[in-house]
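User: ok so my PI wants both of these folded by tonight, can you help

Assistant: No problem, let's get them done. Here's the first:
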Amino acid sequence: MTQTKVRLWNVDEYHRMLETGIITEDERVELINGQVIPMSAKNPPHAATTLCASDYFKRWRSPPQASLAEVALVRVQDPIQLSQYSEPEPDIAVVRIDARKYINHHPAPNEIFLLIEVADTTLDTDCKQKAPLYANAGIADYWILDVNQRQVFVFCEPLLEGYNQQLILQEDATLSLIAFPEIKIHISQLFP
């Protein structure tokens, strides 16, 4: 059997493809492990859950503690750069505050507190493709919001090949960000 050699793209080449129109603005793609991968369409349940969850994170407050907005930025469907070969666009990224709002670069792993993917048709991909990618980059906290079952898959303790710990929490549970254990998130509030 003949083995085909695959040409991997790096982030700079990927950006040049966008700048020159080889990849158009209308194409929903992301760079994953050197490959330009089409992103799934955003169905209404996916879009509504992304909006609901991101709004909840942006307005989270529990006196006397600081609001999440005082200690982190909440980015929605914007790129992050995990490596020279991966620039995915997670549905929600909770990242370090940057005074210039990341005008010079996309958040890197050391600037990321939490990544969230919303899954209505992509649960398998988010578990089997995104989880190892994020773990390999050292992302300490990764959640998947399962729109269909109204539950959250929680991945933590990253290793090179995947996450050491995985939990599935139901809608009535509460959850904390690893970076901010004092912040209690009510899972029911993440879903419309």
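One down. Here's the second:
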Amino acid sequence: MAVEQSKVLIIVNNWGIEETELTRPLRDLKEAGASVTLAATTLDPCETVQHDRYEGETLVPDARLSDVQAADYDLLVVPGGTCNVDRIRVNEDAIDLAQEFAHAGKPIAAICHGAWLLVNAGLIACKTAAPCRYIRADIENAGGHYVDEQLHVDDANGWRLITSRKPDDLDYFVGAIKDTLA
């Protein structure tokens, strides 16, 4: 499958998303020809932040988390933002989507705090991940292995996990997503 023929789902809460961790994958993948859907908790505008505290760009979601299915997509992206992921990781629709992607053998890409969702979804055990250092204990307590790398790709357990630590790693993160879809 080529990037141009792929369908990507990005899932977020409606507030607290780290701006570049959402906008870079969204825009870069669209620019590369992928069909990208932004799904949020509600259809209200998604308010991003910069560095978890400064107001960022506002985007309009395409769908609600409850209205999308993993079967319709090729790859899942989970942006960070402490407040975003702290809320989405306890959202049953988000948890179900992550589990559906993994159980179908479809790749999941999570940056920074995004891997928190995978902890709550019970998907991180026996996986190696490179999220932000603040959730290292959560990864390890869930049976995963933490590494401090710009990018880590793990194919264990029958599905691909792409992780990066922070916005500075976005070139590697988006590049790995594109390579996975190529």
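The chain has a mean pLDDT of 97. DSSP finds six helices and twelve strands in the chain. Good luck tonight!
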